[in-house]
Amino acid sequence: MRLWYQLLSSETGMKNFIAATQKLVDRVVSPGTTVEVRGTTQGVLGDQYRLFYNYDTREVIDNALKVRQGGGYDAFVLANSLDPALVELREMLDIPVVSFMEVNCFTACTMGERFGFIVANRKISARYREIIHGYGLRDRFAGCEALFFDDVRKQEDAFTDPAVADAVVEETKRAARRAIDRGAEVLVLPGPPGALLAQMGIFEVEGVPVLDTYTLLAKVSETMAVMHKLTGVCVSRRTLYEAPPAELVRKVGAAYKVDLLRDG
């Protein structure tokens, strides 16, 4: 089994985070399953702003279309917490498209009544609220607490510098305590802090579970791929994820000069 595991982080600017994520997922999947952790060219450089985020989303779509055209993968895993192109990919791919946010939010609901997020900065909190409310989980969401990193790449050094790692962990714990005070019974940590705490074996703050987000996502994705092989289905083709007809795909590919769509 082969899984495409898509982060938005730059493969050059955040290679330590990507390598740490690869180690986390490798320890959990079954023998015979390969998880290929991928990044983007310039990703998460100010993704709290929708304009910049859209450039990364287009790269994710292109990667997914390459997977669609070339085959060879059993699931496409959106390992970024902003659900980049989630609906678009489910419209186009006939393999499971698994979302970091869906997996972690709904798992958190099995472990406590209300969950909270520890996020990179204040600006991005609005986007998390929008996604979670869209899932229908408004009443289960205790809110976001920010780490005040306007540039997520500043966290990259935590994987190579113990002093930076300690600083990130302490700030994360402070934010976690604020979230707990607001009623969070489970904590979700996207981005480098989530991978760092998992790497260090920190899965609880003051009795509140801290999800091992990237490991959990890999294991659920593997399970979804198994179920797809077993049942032959992985997505509803009614309404939201209805796939465009092949002829329309070809017309759009020609009109917009997208080679990956020209064959329908």
UniProtKB/TrEMBL annotation:
One of its GO terms (molecular function) is amino-acid racemase activity. Signal peptide: none annotated. It comes from the Bacteria. Pfam families: Asp_Glu_race. PANTHER family: PROTEIN DCG1 (PTHR28047). Belongs to the HyuE racemase family. This is Hydantoin racemase. It comes from Ramlibacter albus.
